[in-house]
Amino acid sequence: MTDTLNAAASTNTASSTNTASPAATPAPVYTVPQERRVVTSVPGPKSVELQKRRLESVSTGVSSVLPVYIASANGAILVDVDGNQFIDLGAGIGVTTIGHTEASVVEAAVGQVQDFIHTLFTITPYEEYIRVAELLAEHTPGDFPKKSVLINSGAEAVENGVKIARKYTGRRAVAVLDHAYHGRTNLTMAMNHKAAPYATGFGPLAGDVYHAPSSYPYHDGLSGADAAQRTIEYLEKSVGATDLACLVVEPIQGEGGFMVPAEGYLPALQEWCTANGVVMIADEIQSGMARTGAYYASEHFGWTPDLVLTAKGIAGGLPLAAVTGRAEIMDAAQPGGLGGTFGGNPVACAAAVAVFESIESNNLLVEGRRIGDSLRSGLEQLQHKHDIIGDIRGIGAMIAIELVQPGTGDTSKEPNAAAVTAIAEYAAQHGVLLLTAGTYGNVLRFLPSLALSDDLIADALSVIDDAIAAL
Ligand code: PLZ
């Protein structure tokens, strides 16, 4: 690490490795040097002070992965109030996908703030909302007429997707998969696999939510066809197709641990849903918006969902979410049945338009693939050295490792949550912010922004290598 905190700008190797662009994309200019730098203990003294204040005023129901308080952020780097710089491998759980404070997003948001900040689309509408709906129709999978509704959060997108599917089908039941995560609202906490911490004590939960077996190749060893057969059998026997309004599925499960379903699994479920009048909904809240090297992860599986849910990465960090899908399904909702005060806020919409433009002009789908290749090959090298890395899985900038007890990677695959906790803690102490995941807490996930350079990947992986060696 070199100390260039005061340097005017530094460049990212990302753009120089981008060979798919016919005209060279200009190298991004960063306002924060893209490097790791630890200058105090972690958390540092100023963060410790803020943490004390927080404990006095913020509900303990809201926890934080790493109580370092952030002063600024740019590209793939977080700067805390003590001047430490962290390589951000979480991007606020997949939100700042095109990079922190990306210049075009900042410019678009500031410009919109100066024009007008709020009118409420359901009172007096504005063009930015329409533009986002047009871009969503263009970039979500499927070549058919599509419409959208814009809301504020992922959970709200799930809620609205379910409402629309129920209205369209006239049916009541909602199905999800094992290991799913869909949110923290009343309906969505019933849709999560894990009760703790999301639902414990918060009931009664919403009824008519059914949890079907999923495809988890590392553990179940099933082909896509066999896993789909198992899921369908559950839906037919335990729910009944004629009562089922929708099946909500994350194409790559996020909080559950980045499970990539076996080949053919998702299209087989879609085929069954179509044949049975069930609306199949892709929860692309974590996997969408260019992260996996495609706009939507569903594309990797040849899956064309009826409805697609977008949130997190759509607006560069501003709160915005969407339900997009087949026009005839989206139009089943009666006028006035969808909306909300802040839904499709003009500043968030302006930022979202800039995000879509940046994905195109900076060839960010290629960057997603670059990061996936770079991370995967680095992690494979670590797996050769450390047998607690049982599985490496994911696509593009959505890669995870599942940690198991030594020597069980090919046999019982016994979860090793303690190693995950220790590695994340060691990484934080050394300036790398790493997120955990997994039903059994034994997954380390890499969900960086697409601004993450190969140099930063190599640096972060060297810290993780040391962390595993230190266990
Ligand atoms: N669906 C697939 O990943 C949010 C949760 C963070 P909201 N995941 C991060 C936390 O601890 O609350 C998520 C997701 C998938 C839905 C959601 C919910 O999105 O914007 O958090 O409501």
Describe this structure as you would to a colleague.
The structure is a single chain. This protein is of the alpha/beta class and 471 residues long. It folds into two domains: 2-98 and 364-469, Aspartate Aminotransferase, domain 1 (Alpha-Beta Complex), CATH 3.90.1150; 106-361, Type I PLP-dependent aspartate aminotransferase-like (Major domain) (Aspartate Aminotransferase, domain 2). Helices cover 36% and strands 15% of the residues. The chain has 15 helices and 15 strands. It has helices at residues 13-16, 45-57, 91-94, 103-115, 127-139, 154-169, 186-191, 217-220, 224-239, 265-275, 327-330, 346-361, 364-385, 417-429, 454-469; strands at 70-74, 77-80, 85-88, 146-151, 173-177, 209-212, 244-249, 279-283, 307-310, 321-326, 389-395, 398-403, 432-433, 435-437, 443-446. The strands form three sheets. The protein has a seven-stranded mixed sheet, with helices on both faces. Strands 1-2-3-13 form a four-stranded mixed sheet. A four-stranded antiparallel sheet has the order 11-12-15-14. α13 (364-385) runs parallel beside α15 and α14 (417-429) packs across α15. The protein starts with 12 loop residues before the first helix and ends with a helix. Ligand PLZ is lined by residues 93, 153-155, 158, 181-184, 250, 254-255, 283, 285-286, 311.
Question: Strands, helices and their partners?
Answer:
Blueprint (H helix, E strand, L loop, with lengths): L12 H4 L28 H13 L12 E5 L2 E4 L4 E4 L2 H4 L8 H13 L11 H13 L6 E6 L2 H16 L3 E5 L8 H6 L17 E4 L4 H4 L3 H16 L4 E6 L15 H11 L3 E5 L23 E4 L10 E6 H4 L15 H16 L2 H22 L3 E7 L2 E6 L13 H13 L2 E2 L1 E3 L5 E4 L7 H16 L2
Parallel strand pairs: 3-13, 5-6, 5-7, 7-8, 8-9
Antiparallel strand pairs: 1-2, 2-3, 4-10, 9-10, 11-12, 12-15, 14-15
